[in-house]
């Protein structure tokens, strides 16, 4: 497996194909202000195939969905090997670019981030999300300088492999409500400046969907990516604010598990089958997943 750990003292970089390099360029070009990349999130091969068949131009993984599908909670240090293994299976099954959610990089130090980036590129990814949550009890986020070092390590790892990796630098200032509310926009702009200098391609601001605030961020040093869902402004409004990327995070996998829960509850209580009346046809899904069909 290209993402497998190497023996101690041995450093072997995965080989990157010309096709993967071309896919990386294609993925980067899909990020356009006013015409954002709509990036649904998958958690396994089946969900990725269904999303690709729906017409998605690219797919991102959701760390929460991947973790849940493997029986562990989100944020429980999934690790680079398990994350890369899922990416590798998805890349092999779909014909569109795949971006990997690598959470905080599965390690504090820049070297750990570089190793994770190397693993997911080796698995076929052409983009990553790298967040600034520290996991430390004393500070929810890495400092801007600390995260800049980690982003620079991610960029250097991609450069060593010759891949134009799109680095979506996630800040959880808004999602976690860090600092005074009146300071958050300025803090995000300051982080964007540091992250841009470190080699990030976009600033991902989950927890913020206000078009006015997004337009202010979009006028800053990095293109802006957002996480949308129920209650968010429609794509047209977010596009008008200048964002370059709209993803759904864990919303699709949560909805899928909600169907499972509702179907089970209705079967067990009422003895009826309402939640499973609208499905992808068995034959269509089976054909899509047939080995060698893609």
TrEMBL record:
A single GO molecular function term of this UniProt record: lyase activity
Provide the protein name. Answer: Isocitrate lyase/phosphoenolpyruvate mutase family protein
Q: Which SUPFAM superfamilies match?
A: Phosphoenolpyruvate/pyruvate domain
Keywords from UniProt, A to Z, are: Lyase
The question of whether Glycoprotein is a record keyword is answered with no
Q: Which domain of life is it from?
A: Bacteria
Q: Which sequence ranges are marked TM in the entry? A: none
